[in-house]
Write a structure and sequence with these properties.
Blueprint lengths: L5 H12 L5 H8 L3 H13 L19 E9 L4 H12 L4 E6 L6 E7 L2 H10 L7 E8 L15
Antiparallel strand pairs: 1-3, 1-4, 2-3
Length: 155
């Protein structure tokens, strides 16, 4: 864990809400000059606290109307098979998140697609071709009740 002071926390909370905030406004909000602000941002990037910058896209506005969560069971759980599974999954663009989980299933995938037809193609032409999967259980999202992209960082 990286040690953060109050200014770091305020800086991170500001950047999470608006990654395009201009430097002048950022300096005013933090009550600092440009150099210390740049130094803090650079340090937080170097320490891996800030991992990147991106635009948040509304999937529906660009034609991705279907979100599916796939629970996956793996047939074998040794390092070699898991590494191969990870490599295969990382090559599939429709999978936007992948988590190793405890419980009945081994893996949780978040998949974003245009429609059910594309989902059908994804399942039968991509996911079932991933080596080591023994079972897939899918849940289609009917509506999003909460979506958050920021962490509530506090001291």
């Amino acid at each position: 864990m990286v040690k953060l002071d109050d200014i770091d926390i305020k800086l991170l909370n500001i950047l999470q809400k608006d990654g395009k905030v201009n430097t002048k406004e950022l300096c005013q909000m933090l009550n600092l000059s440009k150099t210390p602000v740049y130094e803090r941002i650079h340090r937080l990037e170097k320490e891996g606290v800030i991992t990147g910058y991106s635009a948040q896209i509304n999937p529906k506005k660009v034609g991705f109307n279907l979100v599916v969560f796939c629970n996956v069971s793996l047939a074998v759980h040794d390092d070699e098979h898991i590494a191969r599974f990870r490599s295969d999954i990382n090559k599939i663009d429709e999978i936007i998140e992948c988590y190793s989980t405890g419980g009945f299933y081994d893996i949780l995938l978040k998949v974003v697609l245009k429609d059910l037809e594309e989902y059908n193609t994804f399942i039968f032409e991509k996911l079932t071709k991933v080596h080591g999967i023994s079972k897939i259980q899918s849940s289609i999202v009917l509506s999003e009740m909460k979506h958050k992209t920021t962490l509530d960082i506090r001291p």
